[in-house]
Amino acid sequence: MKIFQFDCGKCRKPVSLPLAEPAQTGNCPGCGAYLEVASFPALVRKAAPGLSGEKLLVDDESSCFYHSAKKATVACESCGRFLCSLCAIELKGQHLCSTCIERGAVKGKFEHLQNERVRYDDIALFLAVLPLVLFIWGTFITATASIFIAVKHWKSPRSIVYPGRWRSVLAIVISLGQLAVWGYLGGLLFMNIMQ
């Protein structure tokens, strides 16, 4: 029987509970607080050993590209290399080798393996707001650039943390306001010149 150790949420004293069932209850030995522990079945289940691949017994069978002594079980669906059960990695229903996964992650083929994203909505908002504070005469150029970036990257993958589009919308609204002011000032200047 496994013993699960954790800290009490009230007094922070260490508590040990046997995990005979998925849900256990007890009291803290330090403060007497009621404790309830719900565990996932994987916590009490023994870990299954990984597959090491079958040894190649006959010469006319195909062998793994990376392990010549192992029997190939599948071909990589990207490059076609034969892979043993140890090397075959299943990703989104495809069997791939580690080299293709690495290449695909670097080239951005696997969107779910990305570890960084450009936040175009923040760039557009930055271009819309910062010139208002620092250099107001540049707002005509930066407002146009802000609208271009926000519209061009409207469907680009957004941040995982901040998934909304409100920054892009705000950047477009601020930039359109700036361009409207420039248009109004240009109209006034044109009317003064024409008189």
From TrEMBL:
<feature type="domain" description="B box-type">
    <location>
        <begin position="59"/>
        <end position="95"/>
    </location>
</feature>
<dbReference type="InterPro" id="IPR000315">
    <property type="entry name" value="Znf_B-box"/>
</dbReference>
<feature type="transmembrane region" description="Helical">
    <location>
        <begin position="169"/>
        <end position="191"/>
    </location>
</feature>
<protein>
    <recommendedName>
        <fullName>B box-type domain-containing protein</fullName>
    </recommendedName>
</protein>
<keyword id="KW-0472">Membrane</keyword>
<feature type="transmembrane region" description="Helical">
    <location>
        <begin position="123"/>
        <end position="149"/>
    </location>
</feature>
<keyword id="KW-1133">Transmembrane helix</keyword>
<keyword id="KW-0812">Transmembrane</keyword>
<dbReference type="GO" id="GO:0008270">
    <property type="term" value="F:zinc ion binding"/>
</dbReference>
